[in-house]
From TrEMBL:
<comment type="subunit">
    <text>Homotetramer.</text>
</comment>
<dbReference type="GO" id="GO:0008453">
    <property type="term" value="F:alanine-glyoxylate transaminase activity"/>
</dbReference>
<dbReference type="GO" id="GO:0030170">
    <property type="term" value="F:pyridoxal phosphate binding"/>
</dbReference>
<protein>
    <recommendedName>
        <fullName>alanine--glyoxylate transaminase</fullName>
        <ecNumber>2.6.1.44</ecNumber>
    </recommendedName>
</protein>
<keyword id="KW-0663">Pyridoxal phosphate</keyword>
<keyword id="KW-0808">Transferase</keyword>
<dbReference type="InterPro" id="IPR005814">
    <property type="entry name" value="Aminotrans_3"/>
</dbReference>
<dbReference type="InterPro" id="IPR015424">
    <property type="entry name" value="PyrdxlP-dep_Trfase"/>
</dbReference>
<comment type="similarity">
    <text>Belongs to the class-III pyridoxal-phosphate-dependent aminotransferase family.</text>
</comment>
<keyword id="KW-0032">Aminotransferase</keyword>
<dbReference type="Pfam" id="PF00202">
    <property type="entry name" value="Aminotran_3"/>
</dbReference>
<dbReference type="InterPro" id="IPR015421">
    <property type="entry name" value="PyrdxlP-dep_Trfase_major"/>
</dbReference>
<dbReference type="InterPro" id="IPR015422">
    <property type="entry name" value="PyrdxlP-dep_Trfase_small"/>
</dbReference>
């Protein structure tokens, strides 16, 4: 579409990006994509290509791209007040806090708003360590919780944790992902028992741990679900030691997993977590994150505090409109109804392909684990080939997992059955193309 010799707009932007932004700011694709706009479940790039979005802008588009109610709420609020800061009363902030407190399942809940998942987890760590008077944290192997000084320290996935210079003392627990080690072949019940024994063993060697933080389904880790009930079993042990449970719902919240509104509900044996963190989708693209905690925990900080941008009226208005839409259209039910058949289709396709080791998922949070067919070992190269092949065919997906060999599928929650079928078809073709690409390499 460009004149002869002129750089394509996206190519120009790519070189400018590389010249001025950090090297560690990971970009997807050999030729990274510049997105220009979106609508529903589709996005467009600067070269005029349209993509079906199976990655939801990495889950920030909870309901749909450019949802009219959210756009209107943002415009109305932006036209009214540009001042932010928690030093003044704010109606949208109080209203959203009331809604989230009621939805959280946490009794006597208090809500604090942040601008990212990282800051939400950082705040949860601040609260838990202050409440317990300890800087010891239990985190899950293969976990991801953010990119700040404290959250890289509890991120169990080394490829996303650039330094080990954490202010926290972190102990890593088995359970979030079964992996390939001695736990791989166990039944669900035996696996839970083994993980609980590991936890008890660890707690026998340390004293005064503040909290366990865990993603109910590991996101960056590759959409791996532990067996239902794992965290309920952990909870019994934690309760005996007075240790708090922080559920990182940044990826699993708001009905994405279909059967449940929160990921922790798959582990609800002993009730809700003490703290819950959220972010990403609730603002449908606007920066909204936060922490919910029992009043006793939230209010344990004695000092003054203020947030300049957390809970700002424009972002709160976006989240309120988004949440209304989600609930009014039962998008959690949609995730279940559309996600179930999508997993089945992908399993059927995967059964015929040597590169697919496992298709796993709940609702619209689906992982596909890829291996090299000749060795059976995790294959990040296969994942890259599938990503590129899907892109060429007009489908955006993500990747993750400890080895970078898992595909991550997380479309906006309004995905229709037809779009799911279309995406499954493109993904199947892309998996076949990648398998051919691997064997010809
Ligand atoms: N927790 C989880 C489970 C996440 O997946 C992420 C983001 N990938 C974060 C926390 C950090 O969120 P943010 O990027 O908004 O800081």
């Amino acid at each position: 579409r460009d004149g002869a010799g002129a750089p394509a707009p996206a190519a120009d932007l790519r070189s400018r990006h590389r010249a001025v932004l950090p090297d560690w700011l990971t970009l997807l694709y050999e030729r990274p994509i510049e997105l220009t706009h979106g609508e529903g479940r589709h996005v467009w790039d600067a070269d005029g290509n349209r993509y079906l979005d199976f990655f939801g802008g990495i889950l920030t588009t909870m309901t749909a791209h450019a949802l009219p109610e959210v756009t209107k709420a943002v415009a109305d609020q932006a036209g009214r007040i540009l001042h932010t800061s928690t030093l003044y009363l704010s109606r949208p902030m109080v209203e959203l806090a009331e809604r989230i407190a009621a939805l959280s399942g946490i009794p006597d809940a208090r809500v604090f708003f942040t601008t990212s998942g990282t800051e939400a987890n950082d705040t949860a760590l601040l609260l838990a360590t202050a409440y317990r008077g300890s800087n010891q944290i239990l985190a899950m192997r293969n976990s991801y919780h953010g990119r700040s000084f404290s959250t890289v320290g509890i991120t169990g996935n080394a490829s996303w944790s650039p330094t080990g210079l954490s202010p926290l003392q972190t102990l890593y627990v088995h359970g979030g992902v079964r992996g390939r080690g001695p736990y791989a072949g166990l039944s669900d019940a035996a696996y839970i028992d083994a993980c609980v024994a590991d936890l008890e063993d660890m707690l026998g060697q340390t004293a005064g741990v503040a909290a366990l933080i865990a993603e109910p389904v590991q996101g960056v880790g590759g959409f791996t679900s532990p067996p239902d009930g794992l965290y309920a079993a952990f909870r019994e042990v934690l309760d005996r030691h007075g240790i708090l449970w922080i559920s990182d719902e940044v990826q699993t919240g708001w009905g994405r997993t279909g059967d449940h509104f929160w990921g922790w509900q798959a582990h609800a044996g002993n009730g809700p977590p003490d703290l819950l963190t959220f972010a990403k989708g609730i603002g449908n693209g606007m920066s909204v994150g936060g922490v919910v905690a029992r009043a006793e925990v939230m209010n344990c900080l004695g000092a003054n505090s203020v947030s300049t941008f957390g809970g700002s009226p424009v972002t709160m208005a976006a989240a309120l409109a988004n949440l209304d839409h989600l609930l009014a259209h039962d998008l959690q039910g949609n995730a279940r109804r559309v996600g179930g058949p999508l997993v089945k289709r992908l399993r059927a396709a995967g059964a015929e392909l040597g590169i697919v080791r496992e298709v796993r998922g709940r609702g619209l949070m689906i992982g596909v684990e890829l291996v090299a067919p000749d060795t059976g070992q995790p294959s990040p190269r296969a994942a890259n080939l599938v990503l590129e092949a899907a892109r060429e065919r007009g489908l955006l997906i993500g990747k993750g997992g400890l080895a970078g060999a898992a595909l991550r599928i997380a479309p906006p929650l309004s995905l229709t059955a037809e779009e799911a079928a279309q995406g499954a078809e493109i993904l199947t073709e892309s998996l076949r193309a990648a398998e051919r690409g691997l064997s010809s390499a």
